[in-house]
Amino acid sequence: MFSRMQNDNGKMMRNKTDKIDRDVIDVDIVCVGAGVASLATVIRLLQGCKDPSKPAPHVLILEKGARVGAHVLSGAVVNPAPFIRLLGAEAWANAPVCAHVHQEQFVKLTRKHGWRLPVTPPPMKSMGFAMVSMGALCAWLAEHCEELGAEIYPEMNAVELLEEDGCVVGVRTGDRGVDKNGHPKKNFEAGADIRAKVVVLGEGACGCLTEQLIDRKGLGRHANEQAYALGIKELIELPASSNRRGAIMHTFGYPLDYFTYGGGFVYGMDDTHVALGLVVALDYRNPALNPHALFRAFKAHPRIQERIQGGKVIEYGAKMLPEGGFFSIPNLVTDGAMIVGDGAGMLDSVWLKGVHLAVEAGMAAGDALCACLAQQDWSVQRLMAYPEQLYRSKAWRRLERFRNVRAAFQFGLLPGIMAMGASFLTNGLLPSGRLLMQSDHRAMKRRHPATPSPPEAPAPAPHEKDLQLDILSDVFYSGTVHEEDQPCHLVIKDPKRCVEECLEQYGAPCSRFCPAQVYEIRENEEGILIQPSNCLHCRTCQIKCPLQNIEWRLPEGGGGPRYKQM
């Protein structure tokens, strides 16, 4: 499995501190997750280590997906400026860019109509930005990492942080070949202990090790509760049209209610493909809300239909977006570890963009690690150069400028829009102070006869059978695959509470908020049936369960969605 990784004596070392003999592998830097933030960190680090008189650092990247980009949804609009600073204009000219934004609209939707705003709000403008398949972009960045000397291992999940004397010293990878009862199978292979001078956590939003580190080290004590949103997306193939490429539309309003933050988007990726999505903030109140049903209602709106009619779905997926913003970001470093990208909440929820922040964080983290390597000083004081550099970036200053906007949307659409306008006009002076945010699961209200019914998914017309898909048909297009004979990675902590409390008080919202129909109410309401093979790894269940009764664990490496790179 790690055939190229050996210690100085050329032999694998064994760790006998637990019941299983494990390979112990020594490297300089180990990155968990092969997303944009981790890859940018590695590129920047290795760019700064070109002195031929000194040995190159041994850098390892672990990716839990079947390949780099397998867990990254296609279709995004990104600011190219940070990439140009990282790689240079010449290299960026060869990036897998589908198009550049040349037309953008911002539209308010009602149930049957839509009104285009005369201008796109300045904080949300994307004119001239690059439109990319994120899977293809990550694969392209991974090639740069390998050319610079990094090693990347897909199908490898990191399940535990290793600590000594309060300092993170590495990670443990997951065991393979364990049956559903927890017993080793014939193909059992123990996970390895990978020891490193610094662990870089780039797992994405609500990452298992990242949350473990934040909780264990108290890195979020000063911060607001993180807020999340569920993004549901389809890639739709259509007859060729030259007017489609580079045209984007963002929407707000229908099908979301006044107190549910979010919106939709339609991106013309090229002449024949449209990326279509709906983002639903998870601090919604109505326990009857069903994000996938809202997504289908969004697709059926006349203003959306005119852009996708005649097409067919070729890919489906879901992911988690950290929306808390400036006041929800934890401390980024501790002894032996740093957090980059979405795992730290680095997303501009006004712009609905985080890729530029991921690159900025990667460059700052890479510079800090390069300085640590030069001085052979891996202390937390040296690692602090990473956040100090990031805090001086333009992207960070924008986060600070709009620091209270997302929290203002808790009080409704109008207060949120007013906060956005005040932040823009006063350069961040207003709203002043710090608005607090509660955990997403606390926002859900108990069901009540007077609770309004959210919009339902419309029945598809016969000619829409390839476009208006039910949830399980959509899941098929995610390509998600899991080894069936393994311990269930979705754990209901106390099944009795599901029946005695959740079903009674909230109507088992997990059977609705999951975008892959992993959870279903059993016959006669005797409990919850779990279908882990459907899971898209979005972690909505762990975040939104009103009783916090679901634990999401890492399945065997290589499991999960297998998104295309378009």
Please give a structural write-up:
With 566 residues, this protein is of the alpha+beta class. Among the domains are: 23-72 and 139-224 and 328-398, 3-Layer(bba) Sandwich (FAD/NAD(P)-binding domain), CATH 3.50.50; 477-552, Alpha-Beta Plaits. 26% of the residues lie in helices and 23% in strands. The protein has 18 helices and 27 strands. A seven-stranded mixed β-sheet has the order 8-7-18-19-20-17-21. The chain has a six-stranded mixed β-sheet with strand order 10-4-3-16-23-22, with helices on both faces. It has a five-stranded mixed β-sheet with strand order 1-2-15-12-11, covered by helices on one side. α1 runs parallel beside α8 and α2 runs parallel beside α8 (355-375). The chain is globular and about 70 Å long. The two termini are 29 Å apart. Residues 3-17 have low confidence and may be disordered.
**C-alpha geometry:** globular
> CATH topology of the domain at 23-72 and 139-224 and 328-398, which one?
FAD/NAD(P)-binding domain
Count every helix, treating DSSP H or I runs of 4 or more residues as helices.
Answer: 18
Q: CATH homologous superfamily of the domain at 23-72 and 139-224 and 328-398 - what is it?
A: FAD/NAD(P)-binding domain
| Percentage of residues in DSSP E strands | 15-25%
CATH class of the domain at 23-72 and 139-224 and 328-398: Alpha Beta
Structural class: alpha+beta
State Rg: 23 Å
- The total beta strand count reads 27
Uncertain spans: 3-17
- Biggest β-sheet strands, sense, barrel: 7 strands, mixed
The N- and C-terminal alpha carbons lie at a distance of 29 Å
What integer is the average pLDDT? 93
The assembly state of the depicted protein chains is single chain
Biggest sheet, spatial arrangement of strands: 8-7-18-19-20-17-21
Q: How much helix, percentage-wise, in residues?
A: 25-40%
What is the CATH-assigned architecture of the domain at 23-72 and 139-224 and 328-398?
Answer: 3-Layer(bba) Sandwich
